[in-house]
Predict the 3D structure of the following.
Amino acid sequence: MTTRVFVPLTSSELARVVAEGRLAGPFRAHAATPALEEAWPDGSTEEWEYAAQAAAGTESLARRVEGDQPRRLVLAADVPQVRPLDDDAEPTLVEVEADVPWKRIASAHVDVVDLPPAALAAYLSGEELPDSVDGVELDHDLAWFATQEIRNLV
């Protein structure tokens, strides 16, 4: 049995994953954990995974450094083992100890446009992403990319 994890990345980290053909462990990710299920007992597996993906998206922006694209960027992967982290503020947080080879990466989830600075600032301060900023329509959900498309994102 595997666990679907959502790994927050910056654009420079994605370039390294593509070049190496793997996610180098150990690393932190987000997943549907027992703590999340306990906190949200009415949720479904799909809803818990969506919450984990959203948490990874927020973290990807918070990790940005100068030169990275201002987009949420998340890789989904299926891993054999995770260790949930006891974090009351973020119940989706897990630790993945081992490397994840490319064949275990399931998809990428990415904003389709750069977030304008005003939207980026609002999003990072915990506000809901607005429908549009400076005339740019923003998707609230991340776009899905198949593994064969990920190299084109770099």
